Amino acid sequence: MKGFFVGMMRIDRRWIFLAMALVVAGSLLSDIAFPRLEISPDVRRAYDLIDGLPSGSTVLFSWDYDPGSQPELYPLSAAMLRHALRRDLRIVMMGHWVTGVPLIEKQIAEVVRREFPDKRYGSDYVNLGYKSGQNVLVITMAKSIRDAFPADYYQTPLDSLPLMARCRTLRDARAVVSFSAGDPGLIMWIQFAWQRFHIPVTGGCTAVSAPEFSAYLQSGQLHGLMGGMRGAAEYETLVGVRGSASVGMTAQSLAHALIVVFILIGNVAYFAAGRGKEER
Amino acid sequence: MKKTVPLIITFLAGLYMIVAYFVPHPAVANSAQQMQGWEIIIVAFTLVLGIGNLVQVHYGKVRGRRPGWFHSAALLACLAVMAAIGTVWGVAEGTVYYWLYDNVMAPLSAAMFSLLAFFIASAAYRAFRARNKEATLLLLAAVVIMIGRVPLGPWLWAKLPWVGGHWPHALDQLTQWVMDVPNTAGQRGIKIGAALGAVSMALRMLLGIERSYLTTGGGS
């Protein structure tokens, strides 16, 4: 029997990979759904911030991620963009990650133009694109957006865009929303937009980086947070859309359960094989 | 002289930015803003430097036919093709660049990131052991978070015969407590430590004690 457990501990990792692939693929292809999705206070706070802004207010959306984090952050940014447009907010879009800027284009095509055809570029939303500089860029934008971005992503001078006539500095934005996969991202916006210029900051991040924001949430420096696909699914629930995050929650649930099962099997095998006793 | 001039420039520029933060006078604020504009331009040039470095390293690998040289050749080819296509036809939606980005780069990047699920599963099976009290605590916290943060956990919890009926939100509350109390305490410690380290590093650079940015050598 001990030999069996020793064998279990040395199992070829490709079996583990296969089990994970089957669970994820199977749950994505099936229509199983777990009914209960509680809205966490952090997501509610982010939703309330956007929901509480007067119609016509300007909000800055920053896409601070690249395609690697797209499965987690794209549904999140889509849900929040949808909410902001429904609330008739004016959106200034930009990104701190050069490889992530085409994702703004994608979101404009898939969310703005498809679902809100009455929204006009230049007066309802503007895409500034990417500019290097990170925190210095934010400080410069707080003094003059034109100094930081003389033209938008399509090389149109900002002076010819009606929205930018009303939004001359970052301080004219009522909130900053960052979809962040690392640095530069949400932490940088908190440190500069909120801490220095007192512009409320909210947004979303990958699930793996969510724990590092808890200190900012508790101190009130961050006005709500959507952590990973779960956060996106909660926001989709609030907005009333069953998007890819809600669909992906089953796969994520089962993948997590599988990892927990692996941990349990690994520990049972570890102690049954007598390793625990040897190490002590 | 080769080191003294950059050290003086660093000291004066750093000191001026500190002064500008506390002095709102237009003369100081405007010149500081001008300097920040320069910084944006300098940061943009680091991209060029990065591309130059990338080409140098991988071209050397291809030229020397070192192991894995064909991966380097593929990287250089992709770099050249994407740069040429983007420069000639633009990068906006509907262009060839955008199509390649959306259909090649985005799926490949997402696939790389998704490999994490497989490696985490394998690592959890092999290394997550209750070897001692600390490891057991870590293991329990991980299990609570992994199950409590997905809809499956509360759903299963509610179905438990006795505890589910008496304390239906206990798993949610426990998950939130782990995130809010032990996690936040640890994160605060890390952040305070990192911030103090950043302040001391900035001071060392301003005072010319830390010189590693001047050469490839170490500190003072």
Folded structure, characterized:
Chain A has helices at 2-9, 13-29, 41-51, 70-86, 101-115, 135-143, 145-148, 162-166, 186-194, 214-219, 228-239, 244-272, 275-279, and strands at 58-64, 90-95, 125-130, 175-180, 201-205, 226-227. Chain A is an alpha/beta fold and 280 residues long. Chain A has a 6-stranded parallel beta sheet with strand order 3-2-1-4-5-6. In chain A, α2 (13-29) runs antiparallel to α12, α4 packs across α5 (101-115) and α4 (70-86) packs parallel to α11. Chain A is elongated. By secondary structure, chain B is an all-alpha fold. Among the domains of chain B are: 1-89, no CATH class; 93-127. Helices cover 80% and strands 0% of the residues of chain B. Chain B has 8 helices and no strands. The mean pLDDT of chain B is 90. At the A-B interface, α2, α5, α6, α10 and α12 of A face α2, α4, α5, α6 and α8 of B.
